[in-house]
Description:
GO terms for molecular function: monoatomic ion channel activity. Keywords: Membrane, Repeat, Transmembrane, Transmembrane helix. By secondary structure, the chain is an all-alpha fold. It folds into two domains: 63-178; 180-237, no CATH class. It is 61% helix and 0% strand. It contains nine helices and no strands. The chain has helices at residues 6-20, 31-37, 42-58, 64-79, 81-101, 115-121, 144-178, 180-198, 201-207. Helix 4 crosses helix 7, helix 5 packs across helix 6 and helix 5 (81-101) runs antiparallel to helix 7. It is flat, with a radius of gyration of 34 Å. 6% of the residues are buried. Residues 1-11, 13-27 and 124-141 have low confidence and may be disordered.
Amino acid sequence: ATTSTAGPTAGTAASAADAAWPMAPSATPGADTESKTLGFPPMLVSVATLVSWLHLISFLRGFDGTSALIRMVEEIARESGPFVLILLLTIVGLGHALTIVSPGDLTLFEGANLVFHHIWTGEGLKDVGPTRFNDSQEVDSQPLWTVNLWYCGTLLGGVLMLNLLIALMSDTFERVQEKADAKRNKELAKILFAVTHLVPERVLNVLDADAGYLHISSEQGVGEYSACRWIGFFGEL
């Protein structure tokens, strides 16, 4: 009888072939990101990219269709600081109060137990279930203070603060429209000033473009006089 060795030999050959086959290089984590940023820290490049795009958008102030919108966004962002502070303090205060009356080990700033989550989703009143604050199975058996606190937060956050934000935006829009011409002339002067510094001096000499500024003013009445005389001087912007 002849013993066949084809099986083991074939298996050994296959194993050797697999071992000899060149393995594809494994991708190094973060290598693709580093190639995009040319070796610089990705976060720094991301911030610089965002700032560059915002700076590019700011040059749209020179056009009639976009200058008012960009100016309005800037004014709202500048004046919404106190509003955002009051809104955050209100949310934190109401959420903290709800967390205190809620049983169990709840941490203010941990996971899904954020105070913002308590006040906006009404956790314990409608999302999680009626047994969040007590052992009763009836929704109507919630403590009166808990229900009133939740509705107070809903009214403050969803009604009062929202209407206050709308009023703030409307007031800003009216103020921007009143000073639209003066603001536009000032923005155009700033853009020209920036372009003058970006263009090389030799190019300006070839173009024979002398840097100059145009001051636009209008005569105003002061008290009982129709006009007044102002003595002073103008400087560079």
